[in-house]
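Board notes, transcribed. Complex of a protein with FE3-S4 cluster.
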Amino acid sequence: MNLMKLIIGKPLGFCFGVKRAIDELERALDRYGEVYALGSPIHNEEEVKRLISMGLKLIEGVEELPENAVVFIRAHGTTPETFDMVCKKGCIVIDGTCPSVKNAQEKARLLSKEGYNVVVVGDPNHPEVRSIKGHALGEVSVVTSPEDVEGFPVKDKIGVVSQTTQEEGMLLSIVSALVPKARELRVYNTICKATLHRQETVRKLASETEGVIVIGGHNSTNTAKLVEVAKKAGCDVLWIAKPDEIDEDWLKNKSIIGIAAGASTPDWLINDVINLLSCR
Ligand code: F3S
């Protein structure tokens, strides 16, 4: 008999930006049969395998793109230079850039046009941060922690935008550290609502359960942030990408477990995990 109670967090799984992008990609695959994506369209290996079986081709750079191909721009967006190169190859572009990412890109551009030294709070190696950085016109720094700004010289104007999946507490700490570094500091909080809601969900689950399972790709930043939030809340957390990563030892002696999932985790994968746990 299964004595374990599951509390399913809400919202969980695909955010509106990922859902919109995947819907557009599926429509393009239906219509054209073969669609090229510059880098993984979503940070979830299981979902990518499903899309590859429908005709998706993964490439790393524009140089690998055949002339006149159909190309998908992922929710993280891309730089204006890459966009131009794709158009010059005569490609049909399916732009899956999330509107919240577009907003961060536009704010970075606006700040640089108005003479601010732009600071992007986020992971410098993440494709979304590269796309935001690419939209700024002047000097851009990418920072991940308050320590990163310690050596900054004092500037007249510093403008801040954030990676959309950033944790709010970290943005606040970095902004505080920047206060003595600028005569004028302008901050656009470009963390998206979907990210904030999922982080709130995890905090709530942490207070109501004996442990939280976070479902999402191990390469997914927004999932990593959920795990970080759960740990900060003092919660015992298990991060799994798929059902066979459920750890029996971790489950032992727990009677109430919370289920959360990253914004790039498909419903079918979440349901597989829930079904497996419910059948124990
Ligand atoms: Fe967009 Fe936020 Fe999702 S930026 S892709 S709605 S996590």
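The CA atoms of residues 15 and 263 lie 5 Å apart. The mean pLDDT is 95.
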